[in-house]
Amino acid sequence: MEGKVTLYGSETCNWCTRTRAFLKEHKVKFNDVDVGRNEKKAMEMIKKSGQQGIPVIEIGKEIVIGFNEEKLKKALKIK
Amino acid sequence: MEKKKIKENELEYDFIILGAGVTGLSAAMYGARLGLKSLVLGASHGSELPVGGVITTTDIVENYPGFIKLTGTELSDKIRDHALSYDLVKIKEEKAESVEKKKDSFVVKTKKDVYDSKTILFATGTKWKKLDVKGSKEFENKGVAYCALCDAVLFKGKTVALVGGSDSAAKDALVLAEHVKKVYIIYRGEQIHPEPINMARVKAAKNIEIINKTNITEIKGDKSVKSIVLDREFNGKNELEVQGVFVAIGHIPLSDLAKSLGVKINTKGEIIMDHKTSETNVEGIYAAGDVADKPFKQAITGVAEGCTAAYSAFEYITKKEVRST
Predict the structure, then answer these.
(1) Under an 8 A CB cutoff, do A12 and B150 touch?
(2) At A69, is the pLDDT very low, low, confident or very high (cuts 50, 70, 90)?
(3) Which of B23, B60, B130, B265 lies in the 20 to 30 Å Cα band around B5?
């Protein structure tokens, strides 16, 4: 795995729940940021990703938009 | 029919259900009760939704009997767990790439496996209809959004437009109103038409304003949405400053796979099914839920159609088995 992992999501977004479950299933340690409760972090996410949609997953220097299992596996080096 | 343990063969089923929304999950539950070895294939057949389906994008469900109020995800989780409480039910997050008719069964191919089933249920649901105006694609996820429940939190204190006039559109507007400064509902028809209870809530919300008989013709911005252009004046102007555009203009039925099997489809793309039995024109193939041609589409109607399909599949298999003995 490369670098720190941050999940930008919310409690009500189902794909965020799915991403959370995926990261836990693969025993990935991650920082779980609720952009619904933290406006500063929401702005940080938009600035980093250029996206106004969640989830956004930051893996080291890489940004994965949405729950994309293939991209996540590649970025996290999960076989 | 003798009850079978699912472990015997992971690739052969009595009842394969395409789509893991509440319709498909309920059908599996009922199929198992009738002794059918049932497989639900989700999460997506084009809807881009997880197991649980479209109801997972609904904040509050108040019209499902037995539950006065719960979230869409809570409801779908309960139905999923109910289905999985039967040994005969399997749910796999795989998409059917093709379905072919063999002599006495159907072959369902996914990227992971090839399955065989005596019957098939299409509970594939729908996908969101995209707004097709200048700028709508360019600004997707940069202000243009299709899931209010998911993305409303990113528009705190902002002004947004919500396009659509249905009950779902009104519910989306109510979700947005909890987070944003102002919501304009933009609707092309005479008057938005949600259920009366939601119409009353929309009217009571101080930060929702309805603009009927109006279309968006363009979405403008730079890095993100800044304004929309309307086809008629509102407050003396054709351009309205908004930072977000949420779209709820209806759905497209996901019926292509059914069509490839010779299943009859209506002009809206819905699967034509017998409203008493959920049967299609092709023996052994059933349809239920949002993909089917019933006019009233709710979780409870989809669930009922799914259960009816399970019963019809059970009868079909039983009669066939009796004939072959």
Answers:
(1) yes
(2) confident
(3) B23
CA–CA distance, B59 with B69 (Å, rounded to integer): 10
CA distances from A79 to A1, A4, A74, B218, B274 (A): 11, 19, 8, 44, 46
Residues from chain B contacting residue A13 (CB–CB below 8 Å): 147, 149-151
The enclosing domain of A58 has a CATH number of 3.40.30.10
Q: In terms of residues, how long is chain B?
A: 325
- Asked if A13 and B154 come within 8 Å (Cβ–Cβ), the reply is no
Cα gap B58→B155, rounded to integer Å = 18
Cα separation, A73 vs A14, whole angstroms: 19
- Helix spans in B49-147 (H): 72-84
Tell me the percentage of chain A whose pLDDT exceeds 70.
96
Domain, as residue range, for A57: 5-76
**Does residue B53 belong to the interface with chain A, where contact is any CB pair within 8 Å?**
no
Q: Nearest C-alpha of chain B: how many angstroms from A72?
A: 16
Give me the domains of chain B, ranges plus CATH numbers: 6-128+251-324 (3.50.50.60), 144-247 (3.50.50.60)
Which tokens belong to B277?
Answer: 């039995």
pLDDT at B47: 58
Contacts of B280 (CB under 8 A, 6+ apart): B122, B258, B263, B264, B271, B272, B273, B274, B286, B287
Q: In this complex, do A52 and B156 lie within 8 Å of one another by their Cβ atoms?
A: no
Count the Cβ atoms, other than its own, within 10 Å of residue B319: 10
Considering only alpha carbons, which residue of chain B is nearest residue A10?
A: B150
DSSP string, B243-275: SEEEE---EEE--HHHHHTT--B-TTSPBP--T
The string of pLDDT tens digits covering residues B85-96 is 999 999 998 989
